[in-house]
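Predict structure. Input: Translation initiation factor IF-2, mitochondrial, 380 residues.
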Amino acid sequence: PTVVSVSNLARILDMRQKRMMQLMKNWGMEEVKPDLLVLSSEDASLVAVELGFNPVIDDEAAFDIYPDAPPAEPSTLPHRPPVVTIMGHVDHGKTTLLDTLRSTSVAKGEAGGITQHIGAFSVPVGTASENSAIRTITFLDTPGHAAFTAMRARGARVTDIIVCVVAADDGVMPQTREVLNLAKTEENVELVIAINKVDKPQANVEKVKNALLAEGVQLESLGGDVPSVEVSGLTGKGLDDLIETISTIAEVADLRADQTSKAEGYVLESKVDKGRGPIATVLVTSGTLQPGAAIVAGTVWCRVRQMMDDKGQFVKKASPGMPVTVSGWKELPEAGDEVLQAIKGEDDAKRAVANRKREIEKRKILKDVEKINEVRKAER
Ligand code: GTP
Ligand code: MG
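Output follows.
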């Protein structure tokens, strides 16, 4: 049953709690669990009616700001870029690898200029794959990695491919095992092994491969189905191979997303910017995000003011697979929060946020009630 605290109700109705409790007593409502100071939604609405309000009981608080739209036939949708998360043990070269990928891609692209670090970036796939459905690959950077964990905790999925970086001079280490286990437990996530730092004299690729085998990773080069590439983030050696491998996996996976629907995505990271206020890097997973859209993430809403891509350029559209920093948030959203565009604009967004806040409050109260009941049981 839905419950509301007396103090919350008083706040909503703009009334002193003491005064409200006095009135409730006058109306003969003292039997309403006064010791817990919570009311059922029915009793709360009675109080509101007595006070001249016209309450609507909405137990199924509109968490879902979408009507039930029929999902589009997947095979008719346009392709989207694969989303790749780089993971691995400390110091095995994740950041260096990403930096090299990024700088070579910036050098290749016409945009030029200074790349902005926004925790995620797109790499265009080279001309070798001209006929490929895969035009770009989205890489999630280390902060994206943190968001990955947060999103996992919420049962959300953005990553299509995990690249597990293993330094050839250090081999399989504790965090390497964590990544391998993660890849095993994640459904619909492909694993690629990048044996890194092969430029080092101490590099021992065979040893790494054997260690991986001992962990149960069946490498392609040893007759299994897990692709591996030998790379050096420092020199750039093998990075073409890595891109090629990712493209191939993505093509087989036939990744598609609706581009015409309302935008959906995830917050990868967020911070307060001196000039722009709260900003968040959003990875769009479906639909198209545009300035002016009203979006909701967790209990925060945003009227999208500006969007900036990974090259620091203002953009007017963000399609699936595209990471953008979004300004216009009323408060700071959390990494890992799902982003949904409100159908009817600002009012919808505000209502969704209010409903969500109410829902959270409700759950807190329910937890308190549970606790009190437990204590009572124990006392008996
Ligand atoms: P954390 O973020 O701390 O987990 O580390 P990381 O995995 O991002 O490693 P990072 O890229 O910071 O590299 C760690 C060290 O290894 C740095 O000193 C790099 O210069 C060096 N390094 C990274 N990649 C290579 C490589 O391919 N070859 C060589 N020789 N050194 C590398
Ligand atoms: Mg790093």
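The pocket of guanosine-5'-triphosphate (ligand 1) is lined by residues 88, 90-96, 142, 196-197, 199-200, 232-234 (CB under 6 Å).
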